[in-house]
Amino acid sequence: MNKIGVFYGSTVGKTKSFVEVLITHLEKENYEVRDVKNGIKGIENFNNLILISPSYGMGELQEDWKSLTSELEKIDFTDKNVAIVGLGNALRHPTTYLGAMKVIYDIVLKKGAHIIGSSPIEGHIFEHSPSIINNKFLGLALDEVNQHEETPIRMERWLKEIKKEFK
């Protein structure tokens, strides 16, 4: 398997903490982790990508990701496998739950990415999410505020699936 690029943005630390746990499950893989506060230079060099962002406000991207959207829109993701992780708070934002995931999805899909890693909506308590396609979340959906105890099993199941599709 080619090297996996893990790119994440974190403002208050929950996403960074999740990434630290995630990489313990990638130890046997060839991977590189980058905080997008330092930019996304070199993202095009990875054929396998995991892009991670929490959602803020009305489903908005994390601030570092938000500042990089025009740069992200210039990258050709053709022939790249892209898995997306969204962190949100379903009780605080029940109608825009995990909206940031959809923002990333729309950008990389338009630029040719092969999106992998949808996850079930069952078990999540929310009213609406823009990040649902064909009755599934378009990536790994996590509520670290209200359902943090569900994260380990959701992540392990999801990783098992995306590793099958990474080349």
Explain how this protein is built.
- It is a single chain.
- This protein has helices at 14-24, 63-67, 69-72, 99-110, 151-165; strands spanning 4-8, 31-35, 48-56, 60-61, 81-87, 114-116, 119-120, 132-133, 136-137, 140-142.
- The longest helix is centred in the C-terminal third of the chain and has 15 residues, at 151-165.
- It has one domain: Flavodoxin domain (Rossmann fold).
- It is globular and about 40 Å long.
- It is built from five helices and ten strands, in the order E-H-E-E-E-H-H-E-H-E-E-E-E-E-H.
- The chain is 28% helix and 24% strand.
- It is α/β, with parallel strands linked by helices.
- The strands form two sheets. Strands 1, 2, 3, 4, 5, 6 and 10 form a seven-stranded mixed beta sheet that branches. The chain has a three-stranded antiparallel beta sheet with strand order 7-9-8, with no helix packed on it.
- The N and C termini lie close together (5 Å).
- Strand 8 and strand 9 (136-137) form a beta hairpin.
Mean pLDDT across the residues is: 95
CATH architecture: 3-Layer(aba) Sandwich
Q: In CATH terms, what is the fold-level topology?
A: Rossmann fold
How many domains, as an integer? 1
CATH H level: which superfamily? Flavodoxin domain
- Helical fraction: 25-40%
Count of extended strands: 10
Total of helices: 5
First-last Cα distance: 5 Å
Structural class: alpha/beta
Low-confidence segments, given as residue ranges, are: none
CATH class: Alpha Beta
What's the alpha carbon Rg, rounded to whole Å?
14 Å
What is the ordering of alpha helices and beta strands? Answer: EHEEEHHEHEEEEEH
- Percent of sequence in beta strands: 15-25%
Summarize the main sheet.
7 strands, mixed
What is the 3D shape? globular
